Amino acid sequence: MVIFENLKQLENARVKMMKAKPELDLIMFGCYKVYGSKGNEYQVTCKIDGSGKRLVFCSCEEKFPRKLNHACYHIAAALSLHLYLCEGRCLAFGFKGDEAYWLKKL
Question: CA 34 to CA 31: how far, in whole Å?
Fold first, then answer.
């Protein structure tokens, strides 16, 4: 799990993501399927908890445990798409709700 606070957290994961160039599928807004470098499928979920923290979960943690707030490249890939979709929704429907909250303080 990653408590997402800013884009700087993703620097190392983004470098690996750019090399691996994973494919993504949108399952539904906030839920993405990412195909790893060896063809494995991982599910990444982006949500906001009750206290307002932006949380990102990746199913690869089940196989490869990480320290809290260390993002894998699956998270970096899915979060890139998620933020893009948030921006589009905000432009289309106005800056309100969870979409706008994801874009705050980046």
Answer: 10
Average pLDDT over residues 35-47: 90
Q: What is the pLDDT of residue 29?
A: 92
pTM, 2 dp: 0.83
104 Cα distance to chain centroid:
15
Burial of 77 (0-12, 13-18, 19+ CB in 10 A): buried
Q: Are 35 and 67 in contact (CB under 8 A)?
A: no
